[in-house]
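User: Hi! I have a protein structure encoded as tokens and I'd like to know what sequence might fold into it. I'm fairly new to this, so please keep things simple.
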């Protein structure tokens, strides 16, 4: 028997209205996004750190996990830890994001956390 295809939409694929150079939050409700993504065949979704902070104003990580599970979203990724290699003030901000992403990954059962150096520092 062949395993069904798993289609994961990164944050930037599914976060209509989010601007990578501006407001990095999706303008649409988390539950609505998950329901629509599942309806069109996605089995996984990514969530950007700034958006996670916004989602948490309305939903706990446990609420998010319940919504994801109820809609068959089985693969979760949490996105972008930046400046993890720095030793200045950027590292302090990075450490706060790292804590958020690790907490999200644990509860949402993320398969991985994306880490990068977008500034090529």
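Assistant: Happy to help. Inverse folding works backwards from shape to sequence: for each of the 121 positions I chose a residue that suits the local structure. Here it is:
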């Amino acid at each position: 028997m062949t395993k069904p295809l798993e289609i994961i939409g990164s944050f930037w694929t599914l976060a209509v209205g989010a601007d990578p150079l501006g407001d990095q939050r999706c303008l649409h409700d988390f539950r609505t996004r998950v329901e629509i993504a599942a309806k069109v065949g996605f089995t996984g979704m990514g969530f950007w750190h700034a958006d996670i902070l916004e989602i948490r104003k309305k939903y706990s990580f446990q609420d998010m996990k319940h919504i994801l599970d109820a809609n068959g979203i089985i693969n979760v990724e949490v996105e972008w830890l930046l400046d993890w290699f720095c030793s200045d003030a950027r590292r302090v901000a990075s450490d706060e994001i790292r804590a958020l992403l690790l907490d999200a990954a644990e509860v949402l059962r993320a398969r991985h956390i994306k880490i990068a150096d977008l500034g090529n520092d």
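A useful reference point when you look it over: Strands lie at 8-9, 44-48, 75-81, 112-115. Feel free to ask if any position seems puzzling.
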